[in-house]
Specification:
Pfam families: PDCD9
Number of helices: 8
Protein name: Large ribosomal subunit protein mL37
Largest sheet: 8 strands, mixed
Order of helices and strands: HHHEHEHEEHEEEEHEEEEEEH
Number of strands: 14
Subcellular location: Mitochondrion
Organism: Popillia japonica (Japanese beetle)
Strand content: 15-25%
Family: Belongs to the mitochondrion-specific ribosomal protein mL37 family.
Shape: elongated
C-alpha cells in the first residue's frame, strides 16, 4: 500500500455548523447613538413604521379560478326547513325491492314478464354478432385507464397491484350502443325509435307510448311489509334541495314517449351507506326506483305537476346491467298518489341473466366462455314491443 501525506482540511459540514453556533451567541453592543439622540430631544422612529404604507385590500376576480363553494347551512339559497330524504345514483335501499315497492306504491302481479312479451324471436346469425360485440367491448377497445383498486372482503388489508384496462362505464356504453345498433340493423320496426343518453344512462324513445299491460283491479294486492323499519331507512336526510320536475324531451317532438330505460350499475360506485355488499334484491329495487323516476317525470310533463291518478297508464321497460348481468323489468305507472291504498302501480321483472360467464385473455388469447343467448332474446322482445 502506498503511503501519502495527510490532507490538512476541515470537515465542511462541521465547519459551517460551528460557525453558525458561534454567530448565534453574539450579543448586539450598544453604540450610544440612541442615548445621544434622546439627550438632544431628537425623535427616534422605527424603520418599518416609516417604510410601511397602508393600502386598502381590493378583491380582484380572476377569470378561470373556481369559485368558493357555498356553505351547506341555513345561508344556502336552497335551504328548506322540511327534511327531504335523498336517494342518489351511488346509493341503494337497505331492504331493496320491497322497500322500493312501498315508496313507489307498486305491487308485483306475477313472477317474470307479462305474456305479451314474445321471447321466442330469433334472427339468423345474431348470436355470432353478439359474441363479437362482447369481445370488442370488454377486450378489444384501445382505452387503457387505471382501474379501481381490487378489494377482497376476506382480506381487506391486502393491497393488490393496480391494473390498467377498459373502464366499467366505457364497457357499458360500448356494449349497449353496439347491441342496439345491431338490433336496429337486423330488425325493421313498425315505429321509429330514437336514443338519448341521460346522466350516463340510455333512454330509448318511440313515436307512440307503450300499451297498457295490466288492466285488473289492484286493491286486493298488498304492499310488502318491512316492519319495524320505515320505508325511508338508509336514505340520507337533507335540508338543502330544490324540488323540480325535469323530463329532458319536449313533448312537441314526435319521438318523445319513453320506451326502454337502460340503467348502468357500477359496483365500484354504487354502495350501501354501511359499506356492505350490494345484494341482488337491492339492485332490483334500484331498477324500480329508476323506472319510476323516468315514468313519473314523463307523466308530470304530460298531465301537469299536480296529477295523481293517471287517466292513461304509462308503461316503461327497464334494462339494468353491469355489462355482464342483465335485469329486465317493466313498470306500469297508474298513479302518482303514493298513499293510495286502492290503485297501485304494476311491476314485472326477471332474475338477473348472465350474458356470459367470463371474457378475458387466457395465455394471451381472447376467450369468451358461457355465452347465454337468452339475453339477446329479451332485448329483441323489448325492442319489438309496441
Amino acid at each position: 500500500m502506498k503511503l501519502t501525506h495527510t490532507l490538512l482540511r476541515q470537515h465542511i459540514g462541521r465547519h459551517f455548523k460551528r460557525h453558525w453556533w458561534v454567530q448565534s451567541k453574539l450579543t448586539i453592543r450598544s453604540s450610544g447613538l440612541e442615548e445621544e439622540l434622546k439627550k438632544r430631544n431628537i425623535p427616534i422612529y422605527k424603520a418599518e413604521n416609516i417604510l410601511k404604507k397602508e393600502t386598502p385590500t381590493e378583491n380582484i376576480e380572476i377569470v378561470g379560478l373556481k369559485p368558493q363553494p357555498v356553505k351547506r347551512d341555513r345561508t344556502h339559497p336552497n335551504w328548506n326547513n322540511r327534511i327531504c330524504y335523498m336517494l342518489r345514483d351511488d346509493n341503494v335501499l337497505l331492504e331493496g325491492l320491497n322497500q322500493a315497492k312501498i315508496i313507489t306504491n307498486t305491487v308485483e302481479v306475477k313472477e317474470g314478464l307479462p305474456e305479451s312479451i314474445d321471447l321466442d324471436q330469433s334472427i339468423k346469425g345474431i348470436n355470432r354478432r353478439v359474441k363479437e360485440i362482447i369481445l370488442s367491448s370488454h377486450l378489444f377497445d384501445a382505452q387503457q385507464e387505471k382501474l379501481p383498486k381490487i378489494k377482497d372482503p376476506l382480506r381487506p388489508a391486502f393491497n393488490f397491484p393496480r391494473t390498467y384496462g377498459i373502464t366499467q362505464q366505457r364497457k357499458y356504453t360500448l356494449l349497449i350502443s353496439k347491441l342496439l345498433q345491431l338490433i336496429e340493423v337486423l330488425v325493421e320496426p313498425d315505429v321509429d325509435l330514437i336514443l338519448f343518453e341521460l346522466s350516463g344512462d340510455t333512454l330509448l324513445t318511440s313515436s307512440h307510448p307503450l300499451k297498457e299491460i295490466h288492466g285488473d283491479d289492484t286493491t286486493s294486492i298488498a304492499l310488502p311489509d318491512i316492519q319495524p323499519m320505515k320505508e325511508t331507512i338508509s336514505l340520507k336526510r337533507e335540508h338543502i334541495y330544490r324540488l323540480q320536475n325535469c323530463y329532458p324531451i319536449d313533448l312537441s317532438i314526435p319521438k318523445c314517449h319513453p320506451h326502454t330505460l337502460f340503467v348502468h350499475y357500477n359496483p365500484n360506485e354504487v354502495k350501501n351507506i354501511h359499506e356492505e355488499e350490494v345484494t341482488e334484491n337491492q339492485i332490483y329495487g334500484r331498477s324500480l326506483l329508476k323506472s319510476f323516476t323516468a315514468a313519473a317525470s314523463y307523466a308530470k310533463q304530460l298531465h301537469g305537476e299536480n296529477i295523481k291518478d293517471l287517466p292513461k297508464p304509462v308503461t316503461l321497460q327497464c334494462v339494468h346491467t353491469d355489462g355482464r348481468l342483465f335485469h329486465f323489468a317493466i313498470l306500469q305507472l297508474n298513479t302518482l298518489d303514493l298513499t293510495n291504498t286502492g290503485m297501485k302501480n304494476i311491476w314485472y321483472q326477471t332474475e338477473r341473466l348472465p350474458l356470459f360467464d367470463s371474457c378475458s385473455y387466457i395465455k394471451g388469447k381472447p376467450v369468451l366462455e358461457g355465452y347465454n343467448n337468452q339475453v339477446i332474446k329479451h332485448l329483441l322482445a323489448f325492442y319489438n314491443n309496441i
